Amino acid sequence: MARLTVKVHPRAKRSALAGRYGDAWKLDLAAPPVDGKANEECIRFFAELARVPRARVRIVTGLTSRMKVVEIEGVSQEELERLLT
């Protein structure tokens, strides 16, 4: 199981990683922060990146914050770091 901290930037033109933000990753999301749409897009983005089903990705902390901790089952921390770089 892998964990990472992200700072999300909703309402971007497209969903993509935008580099490091201190110890976290900056994630641009093409969804508005309304009705959980940005959280859904965050989960979809990391599920696609790690090639796992959406059910294996969850936001552990930060559901209503820009700083989030995302947990991905079925992927090791080393493998996730490799995918992010």
Structural description of this entry:
- There is one protein chain.
- This protein is α+β, with helices and mostly antiparallel strands.
- The chain has a single domain (2-76), classed as Conserved Hypothetical Protein Mth637, Chain: A (2-Layer Sandwich).
- It contains two helices and five strands; from the N terminus they run E-E-E-H-E-E-H.
- A five-stranded mixed beta sheet has the order 2-3-1-5-4.
- A hairpin with a 5-residue loop joins strand 4 and strand 5 (67-72).
- The longest helix has 14 residues, at 37-50.
- It is globular, with a radius of gyration of 12 Å.
- The mean pLDDT is 96.
List the helices and strands and how they pair.
Elements: E1 2-9, E2 16-21, E3 24-28, H1 37-50, E4 57-61, E5 67-72, H2 77-84
Parallel strand pairs: 1-3
Antiparallel strand pairs: 1-5, 2-3, 4-5
Produce a short descriptive summary.
This protein is 26% helix and 35% strand.
